[in-house]
């Protein structure tokens, strides 16, 4: 159990276009979903945290108008990179958490989406 | 502030044992996680410690000392496929994960 999927797994787009990435928890309800960005040879950088039905909480330095997050249900969150530019090229990873017992917040990761902006 | 420290890179020999250390200072503590990440892939869960002591899972073990703000991941009988980055993460008082920068482990034949 605890499988998280992401779609698409990779995408190439032209500069100025928008790209939507979906993150789904397949066999559990995720109380919280997280979006990370990872540049080559660097660690994960948390972009935002989203809870179902409420607005996402963005980390400092992440533009909320550029990276739109929608968390419509307990099993689906989407990240839209608007007006993408080459510097947005990165590996985008989502994770989902199900708080069990109040003190266990393991995050289950999706396989990631590699975005290349030409 | 919140801080997770782990070595940037380590090298070990196939068949040997390696210990990757992690020290942390966070606002609250709700467990410490170790994740493995191969290049170009998402992290995969290895272990979770919330109480002091050693948790063993096959070739991998993880140790926690909450009073010292310290953990280590021990990998035994190293295999070439263990070459990866190992990420230490701590759950803070808001149940948010604070991530270390990761330790790149290089295994040599």
What level of helicity do the residues of chain A show? under 10%
Helix segment tally of chain A: 0
Beta-strand content bin of chain A: over 45%
Q: SSE string of chain B, helix = H, strand = E? A: EEEEEEEEEEE
What is the N-to-C succession of helices and strands of chain A?
EEEEEEEEEEE
Helix/sheet category of chain B: mainly beta
**Which overall shape of chain A is indicated by the principal axes computed on the Cα atoms?**
globular
User: In terms of quaternary structure, what is this?
Assistant: heterodimer
Content of β-strand of chain B:
over 45%
Largest sheet of chain A: 7 strands, mixed
Note the total helix count of chain B.
0
Main pleated sheet of chain B: 6 strands, mixed
C-alpha-based Rg of chain B, rounded: 13 Å
User: Quick check: average pLDDT of chain B?
Assistant: 92
Global shape of chain B: globular
Number of strands of chain B: 11
The level of helicity of chain B is: under 10%
Low-confidence stretches of chain B: none
User: How far apart are the termini of chain A?
Assistant: 37 Å
Describe, in plain words, how this protein is organized in 3D.
The complex is a heterodimer of chains A (118) and B (109). Chain A has strands at 4-7, 10-13, 19-25, 32-38, 45-51, 57-58, 67-73, 76-81, 90-97, 107-109, 113-117. With 118 residues, chain A is mainly β. Chain A is globular. The N and C termini of chain A lie far apart (37 Å). Chain B is mostly beta strands and 109 residues long. Chain B is built from no helices and eleven strands. Chain B has strands at 3-5, 9-13, 18-25, 32-37, 44-49, 53-57, 60-65, 70-75, 84-91, 97-99, 103-108. In chain B, the strands form two sheets. In chain B, strands 2, 4, 5, 9, 10 and 11 form a six-stranded mixed beta sheet that branches. Chain B has a five-stranded antiparallel beta sheet with strand order 1-3-8-7-6, with no helix packed on it. At the A-B interface, β9 and β10 of A face β5 and β9 of B.
